[in-house]
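Sharing in case it's useful to others searching the archive later.

Someone asked me privately for the predicted structure of 7-carboxy-7-deazaguanine synthase, so I'm posting the question and my answer publicly. Question first, with the sequence:
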Amino acid sequence: MLTKEIQIAVDKGEMLPLMEEFYTIQGEGYHTGTAAYFIRIGGCDVGCHWCDVKESWNAELHPPTNMDVIVTNAKEYAETVVITGGEPLTWNMNPITAKLMENGMRVHIETSGAYPVSGKWDWFCLSPKKNKLPVQEAYDIANELKVIVYNKHDFQFAEEQAAKVNPNAILFLQPEWSKKEEMTPLIVDYVMNNPKWRVSLQTHKYLNIP
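And my answer, the predicted structure tokens:
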């Protein structure tokens, strides 16, 4: 049970339920292969059955951490910060993104887009989920659309999402890790037949890094 003061700070976005933070190589999407500091925020009710970070779902398991501490830690390591989850837009992202930018960092987000957009972003990676579709603003501002392909029906879902996203968004299809052997060849064929799409792989898992 949070104290009243901590709950107020969490509601304002001055404290966030931090699950983990680490410096690594971006493994997915447009910025694959680049160094970045990842900030993983707890809390998500989108509920993808294949999620590989289910321990992030319950925000109560992750202690509210002052955003100044998070920013100080990030500043030691990287010029680019990726805020992910969980679902980071569950929380008010305005304070932390402003503080990160004040400290000269580029700020990226990886989100399902299921909640109203808060924060300012240098790069907005939208990864929509069928369980809870994105809000319109997420489609409008996405720099990158990354659709996870778990089965053949997800190609149709991907096209539905591509039709909603802004015309400048870069389109990626990424196999769900447990289905990579089955779905990767299908994705390769699909991209070759539909070259507006690109292939994304979870290269960090192949490299055995976080």
